[in-house]
């Protein structure tokens, strides 16, 4: 049974196998989300562990008719990341223990910016799932706001080909986002 799809039956989170399946399906995505928000490998690992612990404790409250397991886990993970971020702010000495290179690369993110961070992460994750031609076309034209002519010349393809790649890339991106159960 795929745990990322809404079904009439709730995943059996009460079984150890169900937790393993959920972790295998979503653990990596949750880790990348936490790492991006916290900028610390150890805290990101703690966040994933805490997410599954909270999910285990609240398993009776999970309703697959309301949200997919992935969506529910990301909601819990968001709260865990915010809690860890606030705790780190309350204990500034913890920042001195973190990897300074990772901290330098990660911007300060307040709780109000989490929604934007989640959306940006979801788009990046969806783009990773596209073919390279479509991904490059979308990244160069939409994300980097470059002209079709400039990008087409750089790629050595006609502008009309680039436009087709963007068109079909957007369609594929929409399908991927639906598969990820992300609504616009």
Automatic annotation (TrEMBL):
Keyword Transcription regulation applies: yes
Keywords for this protein: Sigma factor, Transcription, Transcription regulation
Domain annotation RNA polymerase sigma factor 70 region 4 type: ranges: 122-173
GO molecular function: DNA binding; sigma factor activity
UniProt-listed InterPro entries: RNA_pol_sigma-70-like, RNA_pol_sigma-70_dom, RNA_pol_sigma70_r2, RNA_pol_sigma70_r4_t2, RNA_pol_sigma_r2, RNA_pol_sigma_r3/r4-like, WH-like_DNA-bd_sf
Pfam families, alphabetized: Sigma70_r2 (PF04542), Sigma70_r4_2 (PF08281)
Residue ranges occupied by any RNA polymerase sigma-70 region domain in the UniProt entry: 23-89
Gene3D superfamilies: 1.10.1740.10, Winged helix-like DNA-binding domain superfamily/Winged helix DNA-binding domain
One example of a Gene Ontology biological process annotation: DNA-templated transcription initiation
Domain of life: Bacteria
Entry keyword annotation includes Transcription regulation: yes
NCBIfam families in UniProt: sigma70-ECF
UniProt family annotation: Belongs to the sigma-70 factor family. ECF subfamily.
The name this protein goes by in its record: RNA polymerase sigma-70 factor (ECF subfamily)
Native source species: Nocardioides aurantiacus
């Amino acid at each position: 049974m795929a745990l990322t799809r809404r079904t009439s039956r709730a995943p059996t989170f009460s079984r150890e196998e169900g937790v393993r399946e959920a972790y295998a399906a979503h653990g990596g995505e949750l880790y990348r989300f936490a790492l991006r928000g916290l900028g610390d490998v150890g805290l990101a690992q703690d966040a994933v562990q805490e997410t599954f612990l909270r999910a285990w404790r609240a398993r009776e409250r999970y309703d697959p008719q309301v949200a997919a397991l992935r969506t529910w886990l990301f909601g819990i993970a968001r709260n865990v990341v915010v809690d860890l971020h606030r705790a780190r702010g309350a204990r500034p000495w913890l920042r001195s223990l973190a990897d300074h290179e990772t901290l330098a690369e990660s911007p300060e993110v307040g709780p109000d910016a989490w929604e934007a961070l989640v959306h940006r992460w979801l788009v990046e994750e969806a783009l990773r799932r596209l073919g390279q031609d479509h991904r490059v076309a979308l990244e160069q034209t939409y994300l980097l706001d470059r002209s079709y002519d400039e990008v087409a010349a750089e790629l050595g393809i006609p502008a009309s080909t680039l436009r087709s790649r963007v068109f079909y890339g957007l369609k594929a991106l929409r399908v991927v986002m639906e598969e990820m159960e992300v609504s616009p």
